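Q: Fold this one first, please.
A: Sequence and structure below.
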Amino acid sequence: MGDMIDNRLVIKYMAYLEIYDDTEISEELLKAQFRKLTKIYHPDKVTVDAYKDGDKFIRIKEAYEYLKENLDEVNDFLNPDADKQQKSNSRRQSNQAAERARQEAEAKRREEERRQAEERARAEAQRKEQERKQAEARARAEAQRKEQERNQAEERARAEAEKKEQERRQGGEWAKFEGEREVQGQKICMIAVLVVLSAVWVASLVINIQNYNNAVEFYENGNYKKAISTFEQLRGYKDSAKMIDQIRHEEDYLKIVEAGDVIFFGSYEQDNNTANGTEEIEWLVLERQGDMLLLISCYALDCQPYNTSDTSVSWQTCSLRTWLNGTFYNNAFLSDEQAQILKATVTADKNPDYSTSPGNDTKDNIFLLSITEANKYFSSDSERMCVPTKYAIAQGASQTSNTMYCWWWLRSPGHDGNGAARVGHDGSVSTLGRDVNCDNYCVRPAMWINLES
């Protein structure tokens, strides 16, 4: 092993570490010399400029690492005649002593850390105890303050009560007199109000009786429109609502109806009670051309998507057109009523704001209004606002949270082929439209009928 080290390098490194006379070097000696010289020559520890020598510290560190790594070979070189066993024992003892020293140092370090931790714990406990006492002192002071405020408030309340009691005693007789006079005045006022209300009620009753008799006379004389207008002004008096329905069922009434009037035609489930059968459909007359009437349902009768799938369609190809002219047409009208319904030419009206293709004209018994027609036949948003039937709601019709109105379809296309125009719950016409497969929009059927068929 001795021929593996450079003897001259050993002598030089021993000089770097200022080891001169030893015939054997221990690890403790190496560490002691390295620490001593580090304090003198380490660039971060030197305070005297004369000792600042970074290269020398590098040589010291290099000497320490080399000698420590080759300690056995170095000692063999320094003491070649010593008994190898003795050297080995000496080194072992030296290493054991170094280990004991290290363990003792470690034990002292841990003991010091434990002592410091205990000291910190005692200080923390003292701090928390002091904070607790301070908090208790603040709580006592706050409680005393509140108690003082409560006592002051009670004192003020007692003083106020005594003052009011004194005032009550002083003005008791006068208050009693005033009270009696006020009660008497109230009684007189109540009697006067009752007399006035009675007079108003009697006058109203007399007027209602007179108007009712006038409406009946109009009806009997065939002045149906005047009769309906007068009955409507009675706001449910007696059987005025029933009389209005009776007039609208008169055959002669259909001869005089015009735009804005209401007629009954066909029947459809509306109250969502199938046990009592279907209910008559109320239709609003939009236009009259001779004996032909253009009608639209007064209420949204059902809830259907414009098309059952989300795809590009027009009125010509949508599933709602098929449903209206099939299922709805057959369920809502008897054969004699179907004979009065005209197969009208339904124009493929364009969307005025978008260039979406409207498809081709169709021939239909039942159809929807277009954007153009919805604006033509209704003069305001409020006229377009529509209430769904209970049946339509049960089928999924949406209503706004604060109104009873719904959305309903128009036949015109929306901004693209996957959307259809619609009327909003507020009566506004949306040319942008809604997805064709939306399933919470309502249906207001429209149709032409011939009164002479």
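Q: Good. Now the second chain.
A: Here it is, same layout.
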Amino acid sequence: MSNYTKLVNFSVKDTLDSGNPQKVVQGSEIDTEYDNIQLAIETKADANNAQLDGSPVTDTAAPLTATRRLATTQYVMLQNGVTTADLTTLITTTQSTATTALTTLITTAQTAATTAGTTADNAVERAGDTMAGDLAFGSNAVTFNSKATGSGFKIIEETAAGVTKLFFEYNGTKVAMLDSTGAFTVKGDVTAFGTIA
């Protein structure tokens, strides 16, 4: 945005004597004046639907002013009882809260990653791995399948009438039972001192 400043004082030329070269109005002088006028007009805001660029500044109206004049950011702050110190505190608090939240998020993610890594390290492979320590089973059965036929033994624990029994099944048929009293029952023959192949 620029203001128009006249470069040539044309009225002075009227006071000069004839023959004075300064009395002559030159086309270049007129052209320069018109260029300056055009530039000033093009860079000024229109009275209607003006679009202001940069950071335009105006005076601040008194609180409770009810006119059509533009309200500055300062007026809005004062009208709502907000001071610069309040904004500074709000910004500082917001930054602190965001930093704390981000730090907590990062820490939580790191902890989760560490826990996942530890769980993976302590996991047992489905085949070929070795387990250490005691192995506890709940109410589920333990099944041992043959690689060749898919059939095999199953160990099932059941409790009835206060007595816990451990059944050994083979292909769905119970072939032996061990109860909590120590009694061991088999469906077939029991061979003593036999050969185990």
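Q: Anything worth noting on the second one?
A: The first helix runs from residue 10 to 13.
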